[in-house]
Amino acid sequence: MTPLIEPAINYLAFCSPGWCDQLRLLDSTPVPCAASRETVRRSEFAGIAAYGYCRSHSRYFWGFRLYLLCASDGTPIAFELAPANAPEREVAREMLERVPLAGLTVIADKGFAGAEFEGWMADRGAEFLRPDRKDEPLQFGSLGRVRQWIESVFWTCKGQLGLERHGARTLPGLCARVGLRLLALAAGLRHNAEIGQPGRCFSAYGH
After folding, report:
1. How many Cβ atoms sit within 10 Å of the Cβ of residue 173?
2. What is the mean pLDDT of residues 119-143?
3. Cα 111 from chain centroid?
4. In angstroms, rounded to a whole number, what is the distance separating the alpha carbons of residues 122 and 101?
5. Is the model's pLDDT at 94 over the cut of 60?
6. pLDDT by residue (tens digit) across 45-74?
7. 3-state DSSP call for residue 25?
8. Which runs of consecutive H residues, i.e. helices, occur in the chain?
9. Which has more confidence, 160 or 107?
10. Gap between the Cα atoms of 51 and 83, Å rounded
11. Most buried residue, 68, 105, 189, 190, by CB count within 10 Å?
12. Residue 20 pLDDT > 90, yes or no?
């Protein structure tokens, strides 16, 4: 099912107003798959999923991380699931190699900081911005207001679309269920744009 979902998301992204925006937002969010050691031991994800740390909630979790590149309105442009302990910049590079970046401004979290990664983004023709780290001189600032945009996209995925309540028991099932939520996000944004409603205002579709 997943091979059918991704082309549908790509089509909706290409047709959306956000596609023509020169701004892209990059970040990742936890996708937990178990809450106890016994569940971890018996899970079909054993040997694939891993423990990772969620900085925003100061907690460890077991499962995967969803990496997302989206337009400023939240339209998904590219996404990737990876074990929670996978190196963030390596996963991001693998995902970003599939999409054009030339002429775009990409804003990411400070977790993606690194001269090699930033140089790679520049070689792809993208302007890469991220919040300054505490041990760096002032360059970009906190970018807090812009960073809240992608945080609100993840809130929509988790709150209204139930990303963390996926209920998947196998890797193909997890990929399909995450993909369906991103498809719902892309479809809702596209529909609201056509009828003149606020972007991620999906409450009317939950009844």
Report:
1. 15
2. 83
3. 14
4. 9
5. yes
6. 888 999 998 877 778 899 999 999 999 888
7. strand
8. 2-15, 37-42, 88-96, 115-123, 144-155, 171-195
9. 107
10. 8
11. 189
12. no
